[in-house]
Amino acid sequence: MFVLPENLPVELTPLAFLVGTWEGTGVISYTHRRDANNEPIKYEFSQRVEFVHNGENYLTYQSAAKLLDESGTILPSELGYWKVARPAEDADHGPGLLPGIGEKSIQTPDDLERLRNSTGGFDIEASIIHPSGISEHYLGQVKQARIDLATAKGSSRPENSKDYAGASRIYGLVEGALLWAWDIAALGNPLVSHASARLERVA
User: Fold this and answer.
1) What is the DSSP letter of 113?
2) CA separation for the pair 155, 69 (Å, rounded)
3) Residue 131: is the preceding peptide bond cis (ω within 30°)?
4) Please, what is the average pLDDT of the chain?
5) Three-class DSSP category at 13
6) Which of 83, 94, 97 is nearest to 54 (CA)?
7) Tell me, which fold does domain 10-201 have in CATH?
8) What is the pLDDT of residues 77-121, one digit of tens each?
């Protein structure tokens, strides 16, 4: 039986199933790298993902991965923040290091219900940063134990990074495992499948 993480803010209840440490394996493939038969080359990888909270209205996300071959190549890590989408209010911290003022508007489950969208889920946003300097800002929704995300205006990349135009991600809890799939539009290609994995909770 699922138990809400201790001290989890009410506002993060829709994302509660993500909290913890997850490990597993997956497959990377992309249209631009092909073998002698013109089939996309596939790479197997291992991944460790952590979603943690500190009592504020966001989850901190961290991902580390490496190839499952003799090279053990370390793959790009990810750092980010996930939260339920809503207008900023005085009680929210920032910008910069400015502390919030007053009480937060989401204090009870009834308060949270006011944020439920027309499809029965909750709008969410996620900001994810890559070592290359690419910064993704995702918008989407969580409904029960499924998350759908797509990059929005505001995502960016440095002048010297590789071409990266956008992405979409799907996460879902299936029989206790966290499954995800990631499509990207990069290197002159349209949005197509890029990677997927199955992760098991380890903590």
Assistant:
1) H
2) 32
3) no
4) 94
5) helix
6) 83
7) Lipocalin (2.40.128)
8) 999 999 999 999 999 999 999 999 999 999 999 999 999 999 999
Question: 20: which residues sit within 8 A by CB, 6+ positions away?
Answer: 5, 50, 51, 201, 202, 203
Give the 3-state secondary structure of residue 36: coil
Instruction: Note the pLDDT of residue 153.
Output: 79
CA–CA separation, 47 and 49 (whole Å): 6
Structure-block tokens of residue 91: 């009680």
Cα 159 from Cα 133, distance rounded (Å):
9
Contact 197, 15 (CB under 8 A): no
Distances (CA, A) of 4 to 7, 96, 105, 195, 202: 9, 30, 21, 29, 16
Tokens of 13: 């209840």
Q: Two tokens at 125?
A: 């946003």
Which runs of E-coded beta strand occur in the chain? Answer: 20-34, 40-52, 59-67, 74-84, 122-129, 135-143, 146-151, 164-174, 177-186, 192-201
**How far is residue 168's CA from residue 182's CA, in Å, rounded to a whole number?**
6
Copy the structure tokens of residue 116: 């439920």
Query: Structure tokens of 45?
Result: 């990888």
pTM assigned to the model: 0.93
Bridge pairing between strands 146-151 and 164-174? antiparallel
- C-beta separation of 81 from 125 below 8 A: no
User: What is the distance, to the nearest Å, from the Cα of residue 162 to the centroid of all Cα atoms in its chain?
Assistant: 21
DSSP-H helix ranges across 64-161: 109-113
